[in-house]
Amino acid sequence: MKRPQDCETMADIRAEIDRVDRLLVALFAERTAYIDRAAEIKGPLKLPARITPRVEEVVANVRREAAVHGLPPDLIEKLWRRLIDWSIAREEGVLGPEWGQEEAR
Fold first, then answer.
1. Which of 76, 82, 95, 103 could crosslink 66 through cysteines, CB 3.0-4.6 Å?
2. 101 pLDDT band (50/70/90 cuts)?
3. Is 78 among the annotated ligand-binding positions?
4. Number of domains within the chain
5. How does pLDDT run across 68-85, given as a tens digit for each residue?
6. 31 in a known ligand binding site
7. Which of 72, 80, 85, 90 lies closest to 35, judged by CA?
8. Residue of 86, 95, 98, 103 whose CA lies nearest to 45
9. In terms of Cα–Cα distance, which of 52, 44, 61, 57 is closest to 95?
10. Which residues does substrate bind (predicted)?
C-alpha cells in the first residue's frame, strides 16, 4: 500500500485505486450481508423494507462522515440514497413488494 503522495507513476496510482476498489467491494458485500439479515428479521415482525426515519438517519450519518473526511456531503448523500434504494429493493426480494413501503401499512 502506498499513500497518494508516495505514488510516482500512473501505474502506482492505478494499482492503489484497484486495491481500494477491492476493499470497497468487500465492504459492500459485508453491508449486503447485514441487509439480507435485516430482511430475515423484518419478515416475521412484519416490518417494511423502507423505514423512512432510519433512511434519514443513515443519510445524516454519511453526510457527517463525508464532511469529516473532506468530501462533499451532497454528493455522498446522492450516492448513499442510490445504495439505500438498492438495499431496499434487495429486502423486497425477500419480503415481497407488499412490504416495500411503510406507507402501505
1. 76
2. low
3. no
4. 1
5. 999 999 999 999 999 999
6. yes
7. 90
8. 95
9. 44
10. 14, 31, 42, 91
11-58 pLDDT per residue, tens: 999 999 999 999 999 999 999 999 999 999 999 999 999 999 999 999
Q: Which CATH number goes with the domain that contains 24?
A: 1.20.59.10
Cβ count within 10 A of residue 64: 12
Tell which residue, 78, 76, 93, has the closest CA to residue 32: 93
The CA-atom distances, in angstroms, between 28 and each of 21, 80, 83, 101 are: 10, 12, 10, 23
The annotation status of 56 as a binding-site residue, yes or no, is: no
The grid coordinates listed for 91 are: 429486502
14 marked ligand binding residue? yes
Range of 62's domain?
Answer: 4-104
Answer yes or no: is pLDDT of 102 > 70: no
Give CA–CA dist 48/95, Å, rounded. Answer: 8
